[in-house]
Request: fold
Amino acid sequence: MLRIRRPFRLKKPLNRSSNPRPKAWPQPFSKPTLLRAARVMGPTLVALAFAGVAHAQGTMDFSGAQTLMTTFKTFAIYAGAVICFGGLIFAGIRMMSGRFQDAIPGLFGALFGAGVLGWGAGWIGSLTGQSM
Reply:
């Protein structure tokens, strides 16, 4: 059986807690505690009181989402064109210098740009039912 000795320092037991014990325990429902709780929860309670009125709204307008998706579709078209054009320029410069093997990544870049241009814009347009 192991015996654990309590270390003594200056004839006092070692306090393993870094916080000293409180002299008086706090009161759970004192006046300052209730005032602080009212100050903290007040704005939330006011917002919840108006939530019933806001919940009675009729319809929601998604025209902003349609405009946002049109912006994304336009970006996909331009980004695909830039990627495709950049890949073709990269491949063309490599081919003109005679390094056909180094031009292959540029051709795949152009193919990727064409995919972004076609499928990306088509997929984004299909999310909102827009025609190309």
User: Anything to note?
Assistant: The CA atoms of residues 97 and 119 lie 33 Å apart.
